[in-house]
Specification:
Layout: E1 6-9, E2 12-15, E3 18-19, H1 20-27, E4 31-35, H2 36-49, E5 55-60, H3 67-75, E6 79-82, H4 85-93, E7 101-103, H5 110-119, E8 123-126, H6 129-142, E9 146-153, E10 175-176, H7 180-188, E11 193-199, H8 210-228, E12 235-237, H9 255-264, E13 270-273, H10 277-280, E14 284-295, E15 300-304, H11 313-317, E16 323-325, E17 333-339, E18 348-356, E19 363-366, E20 387-392, E21 395-400, H12 405-408
Parallel strand pairs: 4-20, 5-6, 5-13, 6-7, 7-8, 8-9, 9-10, 9-11, 11-12, 12-13, 15-17
Antiparallel strand pairs: 1-2, 2-3, 4-14, 14-15, 14-19, 16-19, 17-18, 20-21
Helix pairs in contact: 2-9, 5-6
The structure holds ligand LLP.
The site of ligand LLP has 20 residues, from helix 10 and helix 11.
Length: 414
């Protein structure tokens, strides 16, 4: 079943007003296709949900860092959550405003901190005391003050896939909320830091908002304690994490209601949020062509021209992506494994999936691939990474050309 903005018109899969097969035939496959209007709408839904509450919606660049995607969000006034110097470079190249950039991540290097301070980013979300000390010393050398938050780990189980759950005591992320009071006291003593915010991110693909609310309450209690001790905390960064439906039976959390209820419980605080998947996930698909069909004694296989190097989520997180034929042919259904050309048993997009009975030459779309799709693609098996296309209404354009064979060896010596 397609999710908006993808929909069948007359048995043909469209995104916005564009026939996906026209794109696939023109660009060849595999190709990532994103809907500009869906991305805009999904960003605006967040922005509106805050109402009168001072806020900053910082798109998590790691979810989709294509320059054209970043540019359209920047044009709408979005901020950006980055986790590397490379992501900062992309944001700047796309026309993003550095004063709306927050730098997250557990292992920022000296060079990255310098680059970010020179660029004039909004703030850092810090994950250790040594990081706070490093930022203080670099800020001192550059003669600037650095706004920082401590990312606290609230011990809340996000109840999501273990690889994308981050809020438990055993996880490498953040600083134990039980130690946060002392860490803030020490941060306040560092002369070049302005510790005016608290941040928290407990995991990704949360379909139930209850763990987010629990974490929010723990952070509010910490902020109250810090303020009682005279610390000027002005900002709470909620992190990202709201999930999207990958299966027809899954329901997307109501962003407007969720953010609205958090706003209703804060006053005098600026709220920040770092959504990634919930802005771009449903806005994209990976279109691939069926190369072969084959059957064994026990299995039916559909071999497609995309592989785990193009979209690793099924192999890495046992993730489900709906598989939609671009033309509904009326040839019935089949129960099949959908696999790619890479030489690994883990190279599959679906196992024992009831799906359209597609034949070689047909195209299918792997749905909900706008987040953590292309960004996680690699050149494994020396496969050039796919093209990316941005659709805007009835028009579309290639926003990243398919890699060539020469791209594969760039920088190498024989
Ligand atoms: N903020 C921080 C500090 C994060 O670590 C993340 C995601 C986000 C925001 C954005 O979270 P979102 O709104 O997208 O849930 N590759 C995995 C997901 C990894 C998420 C990493 N951190 C996947 O494909 O499911």
């Amino acid at each position: 079943m397609p999710f908006p903005p993808f929909a069948y018109r007359d048995r043909t899969l469209f995104v916005e007003d564009t026939d996906l097969e026209a794109i696939a035939r023109s660009t060849s496959t595999p190709v990532y296709v994103y809907s500009a209007n869906a991305i805009r709408e999904r960003y605006r839904r967040y922005d509106r949900a805050f109402g009168q509450t001072p806020h900053m919606v910082c798109f998590a660049v790691k979810a989709n860092s294509n320059l054209s995607v970043l540019r359209l969000l920047a044009a709408d006034g979005a901020g950006f959550d980055i986790v590397s110097g490379g992501e900062l470079f992309r944001v700047l190249q796309a026309g993003g405003d550095p004063s709306r950039v927050v730098f997250s991540g557990v292992g920022k290097t000296r060079e990255e901190v310098e680059y970010a301070l020179e660029t004039g980013i909004h703030s850092f979300n810090c994950e250790s005391e040594s990081e706070l000390a490093l930022i203080d010393s670099i800020a001192s050398r550059l003669g600037v003050k650095a706004r920082v938050a401590v990312r606290v780990n609230p011990h809340v189980d996000a109840q999501t896939h273990p690889y994308i759950s981050t809020g438990l005591r055993d996880h490498k992320f953040g600083i134990d909320i039980a130690q946060a009071d002392e860490v803030y006291a020490r941060a306040a003593a560092l002369p070049n830091l302005i510790p005016d915010a608290v941040s928290c991110h407990i995991g990704s693909q949360l379909l139930d908002t209850a763990p987010l609310v629990e974490a929010f309450e723990a952070v509010l209690a910490l902020i109250a304690r810090l303020r009682a001790r005279g610390m000027g905390i002005t900002t709470l960064d909620l992190g990202g994490g709201l999930g999207v439906p990958y299966k027809p039976e899954q329901r997307e959390p109501d962003v407007t209601a969720h953010i609205g209820s958090l706003c209703a419980r804060t006053s005098g605080l600026t709220l920040m949020t770092e959504p990634g998947r919930s802005i771009v996930g449903p806005a994209g698909a990976l279109v691939t062509r069926v190369l072969y069909r084959k059957s064994t004694a026990t299995k039916e296989f559909v071999v497609v021209d995309a592989a785990m190097n193009d979209l690793i989520r099924p192999a890495l997180y046992q993730a489900h992506h709906e598989i939609l034929p671009l033309r509904q042919s009326g040839a019935g259904t089949v129960i099949a494994d959908v696999v790619g050309p890479v030489c690994e048993t883990g190279d599959f997009f679906a196992r024992d999936r009831e799906m359209a009975n597609v034949m070689p030459g047909d195209f299918v779309a792997l749905a909900t691939a706008g987040a953590y799709g292309f960004v996680l693609a690699s050149n494994y098996n020396s496969r050039p990474r796919p093209a990316e296309v941005l659709v805007d209404g009835a028009g579309w354009r290639i926003v990243r050309r398919r890699e060539s064979l020469v791209d594969l060896i760039r920088g190498e010596e024989a």
